[in-house]
């Protein structure tokens, strides 16, 4: 059983933490649409309700919300997998910052973190 849980966790980490070469984001008050260079598109409804998603082999649920200028996704997977992503744009609008935390926020000793910065590209072939 432990081997199955470990394999499932590796699937979440591999698929959810993959860094796309190109990340396109369309943001509105009620939703955020994200698509990558592989043509995968996901729409996150910013209503705070859990929605079902699949990215490659990873099946998960996510709750999305806007707080001021921050967009936040709280991801839940099987066997207690938890991950959060917080997105915000620099003042000049040229950079997107993403703060990622894996683990249970109620148990800080379980958290691992990754921070990413994406530069805006005005035209993509």
Give the SSE layout.
Blueprint: H1 2-16, E1 23-27, E2 31-36, E3 41-45, E4 51-55, E5 58-67, E6 70-76, E7 82-89, E8 95-102, E9 112-119
Antiparallel strand pairs: 1-2, 2-3, 4-5, 5-6, 6-7, 7-8, 8-9
Walk me through the structure.
The chain has 125 residues and is mainly β. It has one domain: Lipocalin, CATH 2.40.128. Helices cover 12% and strands 50% of the residues. It contains 1 helix and 9 strands; from the N terminus they run αβββββββββ. The chain has one helix at 2-16, and strands at residues 23-27, 31-36, 41-45, 51-55, 58-67, 70-76, 82-89, 95-102, 112-119. The strands form 2 sheets. It has a 6-stranded antiparallel sheet. The chain is globular and about 50 Å long. The termini are far apart.
- Let me know the CATH homologous superfamily: Calycin beta-barrel core domain
Number of strands: 9
Tell me the distance between the termini: 46 Å
The 3D shape can be described as globular
CATH class: Mainly Beta
Keywords:
125 residues; mainly beta; Lipocalin; 6-stranded antiparallel beta sheet; 3-stranded antiparallel beta sheet; 1 helix; 9 strands; 12% helix
Question: How is this structure best summarized?
Answer:
Strand 2 and strand 3 form a beta hairpin.
């Amino acid at each position: 059983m432990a081997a199955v849980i470990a394999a499932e966790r590796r699937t979440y980490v591999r698929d959810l933490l993959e860094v796309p070469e190109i990340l396109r984001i369309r943001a509105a008050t009620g939703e955020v649409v994200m698509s990558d260079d592989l043509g995968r598109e996901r729409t996150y409804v910013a209503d705070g309700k859990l929605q079902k998603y699949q990215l490659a082999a990873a099946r998960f649920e996510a709750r999305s919300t806007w707080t001021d200028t921050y967009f936040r996704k709280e991801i839940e997977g099987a066997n207690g997998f938890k991950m959060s992503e917080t997105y915000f744009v620099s003042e000049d609008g040229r950079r997107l910052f993403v703060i990622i935390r894996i683990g249970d926020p109620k148990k800080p000793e379980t958290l691992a973190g990754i921070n990413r910065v994406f530069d805006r590209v005005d035209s993509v072939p």
